[in-house]
């Protein structure tokens, strides 16, 4: 009996020691300020990257091969036009009367004369697009971004910006459609957004020594840039569609990997995509 108790005590000691050892390894991880969840974030980032490599990217490549460029442009315009509803809502919450008026006019103009938004007449007509989201609205009123987060499938975000998905759901018209319509539309939007990022993510894979760090820094820089200047973020599109040279004029570094996931497009993980607000997930 005593021998059995000693064996059990020894086994328990080994288990406790192992747990404490693992905990010690986690707490000794060289975390970056502002990213206290880095070990967890890296695990989620790795998961997102694998999903992108084996699912999202191949589908996006096939989409670009079988879909003519004018059709892809029309699809991009359609979802961008839907995003103006959310932009208008956040403009109103931020008490930006001029921006709200312009985004409302954009939506009305393109929805009427652009065949439901398939054609963007508002931009050449001089109505600029004001990319906004609920995270920027909270930041406008002084809510700090909080620590950096990587959301499964959606990509880079922050504690503050992660709330934007809830608000975006209620300000996206397609959310109120039946599931048999809203789900396919979400899929088309997702694939189109990922196709637009093919060029940017290829550059990311070739240039970044540590993709996680590169995406995180680019995301946080971009969010600060949007919050401080209110300037529209760059559009990352496939090189064979509209190659765009991107640089962050307010920062010494080049920002080159974050899609605008909350202005009618789906944010992908850093390269993602997309959450400052992401290069999504």
Automatic annotation (TrEMBL):
Record's compositionally biased regions (Polar residues): 260-275
Pfam families: MlaA
Keyword annotations: Lipoprotein, Signal
Region (Disordered): 236-281
Family: Belongs to the MlaA family.
PANTHER family registered for this protein in UniProt: INTERMEMBRANE PHOSPHOLIPID TRANSPORT SYSTEM LIPOPROTEIN MLAA, LIPOPROTEIN VACJ-RELATED
Name the record gives this protein: VacJ family lipoprotein
UniProt source species: Paraburkholderia solitsugae
